[in-house]
Amino acid sequence: MSKQTIIGRTYDALLFDMDGTIVNSIAVAERVWAAWAEQHGLDVASFLPTIHGRRGIETITRLRLPGVDPQAEVEALLLAEIDDVDGIEAIEGAVVFLTSLPPDRWAIVTSAPRELAVRRLEAAGLPIPAVFVTAEDVERGKPAPDCFLLAAERLGKKIEDCLVFEDAPAGIQAGEAAGAAVVVVTTTHKHPLETNHPTITGYGELTAELLRT
Question: What are the catalytic residues?
Answer without folding.
Answer: 17, 19
